[in-house]
Amino acid sequence: VTIGVARETAAGERRTALTPETCKKLVASGAEVRVERGLGVAAHFADAAYTDAGAVLVDDAPAALSGAAIVLCVRPPEVDRLQLLDPGAVLVGVLQPEADDARGEAIVTRGLVAFPLERLPRTTRAQSMDVLSSQAGMAGYKAVLIGAQLAPRFFPMLTTAAGTIRPSKVLVVGAGVAGLQAIATAKRLGAQVEGFDVRPETREQIESLGGRFLDLGVSAAGEGGYARALTDEERAEQQRRLGEHLRGIDVAVCTAAVPGRPAPKIVTAAMVAGMRPGSVIVDLAAESGGNCEATRPGETVDVDGVIVAGPLDLASMGATHASDMFARNVFNFVQLLLVEGALAPDWHDELLARTVWPARPAAERVAD
Ligand code: NAD
């Protein structure tokens, strides 16, 4: 089987879906791997490392992609890239086919078999392929470091000849994968850490990391281990209690999300106005609109002394390790598609059947 990987084209994207490590494994399993020159440079993987791993280096994206049976990517390829692929070619990456009509249409009209990895069910078996989790881990980690960098305070408690410094109070809003990594990271830096979420099971997870669970009296577990959107009454209750609490917080890290919807607005402009000057909000949800009303995606703004950062591409800030993890996730997924080195997807496998886009009707899956 021929596997093609081209450089990512999205602005700010530094990661790659293939590392020399996963390239070597794919080559060992009998694949021909074609890599566009410079593929891993932004993530600090040199071309020579790919050739050492058995890749065929090619000069441009068309040479990497046309004729490939499987194409790996981090972000959705542009339409002109999709046009390069052969009908029936398999595309694996974070593809968001429904977010862009032209791209979705190109996938359909071109007859591509797309596996948007963000659609993977979050089952135990899928964990090793779960790019949302692996990338959220890096995002949560970097978000805390940005908060520490912007804050005019220490995170840890210090007892010095110049007196005692009290530890910073960090609040993590949303305790999913990114939020839990944020809690762990802030804790390691010595802050007093609290977290809250609308899924009740997060209490134990937050406490196991040494954080305190902030109970805002709202519980809203949804389907598939995710949260559901709050009702108006629930939101009002959450906001009343949160607004009070934020007055004593030095750094708030916002990570709350509800699948398929814009990020819930949790921190209102009035809450920001109530925070102490010098406090910081890092809104990891900026990419999907932000959890804070004052967030401007991609910018850091000063709102009457409160610093509000809306960083984008957080996972790309740790491009080497983020790529290591992303590429292993992709490699593990590709194993589901191959039988003795040949492309032979088993449509009875629920991970493939539930991830493929456009969705296949169950009858057709069985017929295959
Ligand atoms: P996510 O990015 O969709 O959301 C982040 C967090 O925001 C979630 O914890 C959610 O509950 C929370 N949230 C939503 N609305 C909120 C609100 N109004 N106030 C406060 N918090 C709010 O979620 P995620 O991090 O990708 O994953 C969420 C869940 O999926 C977790 O339980 C995670 O452990 C689970 N998961 C399971 C597997 C697996 O078993 N294979 C893999 C990954 C994640």
From TrEMBL:
<dbReference type="Pfam" id="PF01262">
    <property type="entry name" value="AlaDh_PNT_C"/>
</dbReference>
<keyword id="KW-0560">Oxidoreductase</keyword>
<keyword id="KW-1278">Translocase</keyword>
<dbReference type="GO" id="GO:0016491">
    <property type="term" value="F:oxidoreductase activity"/>
</dbReference>
<keyword id="KW-0520">NAD</keyword>
<dbReference type="InterPro" id="IPR007698">
    <property type="entry name" value="AlaDH/PNT_NAD(H)-bd"/>
</dbReference>
<dbReference type="Pfam" id="PF05222">
    <property type="entry name" value="AlaDh_PNT_N"/>
</dbReference>
<comment type="function">
    <text>The transhydrogenation between NADH and NADP is coupled to respiration and ATP hydrolysis and functions as a proton pump across the membrane.</text>
</comment>
<keyword id="KW-0547">Nucleotide-binding</keyword>
<dbReference type="InterPro" id="IPR036291">
    <property type="entry name" value="NAD(P)-bd_dom_sf"/>
</dbReference>
<feature type="domain" description="Alanine dehydrogenase/pyridine nucleotide transhydrogenase NAD(H)-binding">
    <location>
        <begin position="148"/>
        <end position="310"/>
    </location>
</feature>
<dbReference type="InterPro" id="IPR008143">
    <property type="entry name" value="Ala_DH/PNT_CS2"/>
</dbReference>
<dbReference type="InterPro" id="IPR007886">
    <property type="entry name" value="AlaDH/PNT_N"/>
</dbReference>
<protein>
    <recommendedName>
        <fullName>proton-translocating NAD(P)(+) transhydrogenase</fullName>
        <ecNumber>7.1.1.1</ecNumber>
    </recommendedName>
</protein>
<keyword id="KW-0521">NADP</keyword>
<feature type="domain" description="Alanine dehydrogenase/pyridine nucleotide transhydrogenase N-terminal">
    <location>
        <begin position="4"/>
        <end position="139"/>
    </location>
</feature>
<comment type="similarity">
    <text>Belongs to the AlaDH/PNT family.</text>
</comment>
